[in-house]
Amino acid sequence: MNVGGVVGGGSGGGGDTDLKSSPLSEWTHNVSRRYQHLLDKSTPHVFHRWIGFAVVFFIYALRVYFVQGFYIVTYGLGIYILQLFLAFLSPQVDPELQDGPSLPTRGSEEFRPFVRRLPEFKFWYSLTRAFCIAFTLTFFSMFDVPVFWPILLFYWLVLFVSTMKRQIMHMIKYRYVPFSFGKRRYTGKKAAVVDDEASGRP
């Protein structure tokens, strides 16, 4: 009898806890679902998304310019941008490690679109989120480490040139271009011209 009473009391306490946490979890779930819905709706609007990112970038640049600080935050942001950009230019499967079919190197081969390691939407989303986080960090003085910013800029430029040189050499070696405009479509106009000539019509 006592065991039953303990079990019943324990379940009742858990029910009270669930009822208390239910409104908060429901609100969190609704906000998350609404946020995901907005992201899904923005997926096809590539141009407008990048315009929004340009606005975020401009606001962050103005913030750093007027504050005259937070160069360490900006440097870390630059390293992260470089990492994202390299993933955006890289194929999903590295040709050096691939044993199966590779990217087409001749026009006679079957068309296979370039598949990125980091898709365009995730590239945009990661960039925008990184700039928003960096902008938030500029309101905390603990992240404003005094540093001679030209050295950071010079080091970042050297890192950018070296990594991009390696990436371009990789593209040349395996003969791929990180941009795909889709499969060519033939409208049939040439076939119509051939039919006209065969029928003898002027």
Note down, in words, how this protein is organized.
- The chain has helices spanning about 1-40, 45-65, 70-90, 120-135, 150-175, 190-200.
- The protein is mostly helical.
- Mean pLDDT is about 80; it is low at about 5-10 and about 185-200.
Summarize this structure briefly.
The chain is mainly α and 202 residues long.
List the helices and strands and how they pair.
Blueprint: H1 2-42, H2 46-67, H3 71-89, H4 120-137, H5 149-174, H6 189-199
Helix pairs in contact: 2-4, 3-4, 3-5
SSE sequence, one letter per element: HHHHHH
- Our count of domains comes out at 1
Overall mean pLDDT stands at: 79
Report helical residue fraction.
55-70%
What does the radius of gyration come to? Answer: 28 Å
How many β strands by DSSP? 0
Distance between the first and last residues' Cα: 104 Å
How many helices does DSSP assign? 6
Largest sheet: none
State the secondary-structure class.
Answer: mainly alpha
Strand content: under 5%
Features:
mainly alpha, disordered N terminus, 68% helix, 202 residues
